[in-house]
Amino acid sequence: MRSIAITGATGFIGTVLLSHLVDQGFHVKALYRPASTPTPDQTDAVQWQPGDLDDIKSLRKLVAGVDAIVHCAGAVRGTSLEQFENTNTAGVAHLLEAAVEEKIPRFLLMSSLAAREPSLSAYASSKKSGEAVLVKYQDRISCDILRPPAVYGPGDREMLPLLQLIRRGIVPIVGDKNGRFSLIYVDDLVAAVCCLLKSDPAPKSRCFELHDGQPDGYTWQKIKTVAAHLNGKEPRCLSIPRSLLQMIALTNAGLARLLDYRPMLTPGKVREIFHLDWVCDNTAIFEATDWQPRILFSEGMKRLFP
Ligand SMILES: NC(=O)c1ccc[n+]([C@@H]2O[C@H](COP(=O)([O-])OP(=O)(O)OC[C@H]3O[C@@H](n4cnc5c(N)ncnc54)[C@H](OP(=O)(O)O)[C@@H]3O)[C@@H](O)[C@H]2O)c1
């Protein structure tokens, strides 16, 4: 398999994925939205296709002649179900339609662990609906779903402020103090995508969770221990009350309607943050590929803040 079409290549995960695919010797066709992104540099290894998930013509051009598609574009900010579904559900359907028309044999969807709990938020629900679209196409194209937990690494803007505080010896407890969560460094995630692309396709759609190798996920206590090692001293903990986050989220939601922008922290995101169990299971991906995670949170923090 030599030629891959990807979406979302101008975003956090997609940027890293694109350069990893090129490093691995793949030829890549990448979608970009001219309206929101400056025209990316043209190189021999990457062919940039202007377009949008709404524009089926551009999607046909994107996927024509490739061996596989990695669909990494997604809406991660917003206030309404409609905003999320337009991209995370309808976008999957449009791309799959183009893929089937062009007889592309393989499709990988970057979903989210949030899809495991669709009742929590509009984002989670839209990611789950996107997965459901793919299941409908599985008799015509080999489909795999990846469900990463929170992803961090260079280029990420969402988790960076929190990680900067941890690096300075302050651990903000954002969520339930008894919560457990998996994490994954972006390099490990894109390595998993490459392993899947190199593995044999399956006749039925498969769904893979994946984490960084920390068994049973992280607790806030474990994060404190990592912070203590990084800083050489006991960190200070800062509990962020749910009521405060909820107040900011409600303000965001109101302002977003007035000023027409898409915030990250919404009441749905607060419900996601306070969910008790965001622990992933690597069993299925270990059985399907030879992928191994390499970057635990302690190592990821050292890479981010050398
Ligand atoms: N970051 C995480 O912690 C995390 C965790 C689990 C799952 N995920 C999933 O991973 C994927 C990528 O996330 P990310 O963090 O890299 O997000 P991101 O930085 O916001 O990037 C989103 C990408 O999607 C593109 N996009 C959005 N709407 C589009 C449309 N209508 N047509 C074409 N392209 C469109 C964006 O293009 P522009 O540059 O033009 O805006 C950008 O390239 C998403 O599907 C997300 O649900 C992320």
- Pairing-aware structural class of the strands and helices? alpha/beta
Report the CATH superfamily of one domain.
Answer: NAD(P)-binding Rossmann-like Domain
Following the backbone from N to C, one meets helices and strands in this order, namely EHEEHEHHEHEEHEEEHEHEHHEHH
Strand order within the widest beta sheet: 3-2-1-4-5-6-11
CATH topology of one domain: the name is Rossmann fold
- Residues in helix, %: 40-55%
Counting DSSP E segments of at least 2 residues, the number of strands comes to 13
**Ligand inventory:** NADP nicotinamide-adenine-dinucleotide phosphate
Low-confidence stretches: none
Strand residue content: 15-25%
Mean pLDDT: 95
Major sheet description = 7 strands, parallel
Q: How many helices in DSSP terms?
A: 12
Distance between the termini: 36 Å
Over the alpha carbons, how many angstroms does the gyration radius reach? 19 Å
User: What's the level 1 CATH class of one domain?
Assistant: Alpha Beta
The name of the CATH architecture of one domain is 3-Layer(aba) Sandwich
Shape: globular
